Amino acid sequence: MLDSNIRLGCFFINKTFSITQITIGAALVTVILYKGNSSVLVTLFFVYDSQTCTKCDREKIMENTLEDMVALVTGSGRGMGRTHAELLASRGADVIVHDMDKKNANETVEVVRALGRKAEAIISDVCDVKDFSSKIKQMEYKFGKIDILVNNAGIGGNKLVLEDIDELVYDRLFDTHVRGTFFATRSVIPGMKERNYGKIINISSIYAMGGSNFASHYAAAKSAISGLTKSWAREFAPWKICCNAVAPGFILTDMTRGSNTIEMLEARSKAMPLGRFTKSIEISYSVCWLASRECDMITGQVISPNSGEVIVGY
Ligand SMILES: NC(=O)c1ccc[n+]([C@@H]2O[C@H](COP(=O)([O-])OP(=O)(O)OC[C@H]3O[C@@H](n4cnc5c(N)ncnc54)[C@H](O)[C@@H]3O)[C@@H](O)[C@H]2O)c1
Q: Is ligand 1 within 6 A of the CB of residue 282?
């Protein structure tokens, strides 16, 4: 308790600065106590981790917004790709739509624009590396950057058994999934490295985790995508570029609708531990979460929204 004839002088300096990538806050508080002709000077010096301590920084970290981000979603003319584009846009991202089907791609562009975001379409086959890469570069120039790449374009394995998978079928499937993912990523990486920021989200499959009793070429291609994800996570980490994969379980889209009868779908749906199939939008939730700043410290992971059908290590 201060005496009535004790006077108080107080100086306060607060500054934040970064040491080895940790933001430090430092505060210097000097208190001078005067009594009559004598004075005592007390100086207190505090250092704190400002990222965990200040309210505004905490809010910034917990934001799930994608405002000011530019996303490229391959194969976003229909199916899950379109849902990813739509959810990314509704969270604030501008979207570069891509597909080899022009009509579908343009429809997705309209969906994104209706949400108030910028959108343009690339029409290209992911297997045509020269054409697709040069169109990605043109769009990167037009949008100023690409922060998020979702490698989604894909074709199904059509329940083929080994004897029915010839070289043509094998090559087309591997080229679409692996070559497409590989070279689309190769096109966006230089820009991401320049800006020290990026999110690569590859679409794998539960077949890469639990195998499949048909379409082994599809399971192998999706396993390759999981492998790329883990290697790229290590390779790009110095530039703060995160690379993760989403491995959906069975999702009812145009890809899967044709190869399953209603009876087969009903039986499989009932067998799901969570009681129903996962929906496209529920895959997009994972994609958008991995694309957000909430996941700045998550890389090299494969997460699988699959209604509990495959639980690794179970
Ligand atoms: N549907 C499922 O059950 C399921 C499960 C696990 C993983 N996946 C994966 O999710 C992704 C999306 O699947 P979907 O079910 O939405 O399929 P979909 O067939 O509805 O959509 C795929 C899109 O990719 C485009 N595409 C295909 N090959 C292309 C190419 N060479 N160049 C450019 N565009 C191309 C198609 O035109 C289409 O618009 C695929 O990678 C698929 O393998 C799907």
A: no
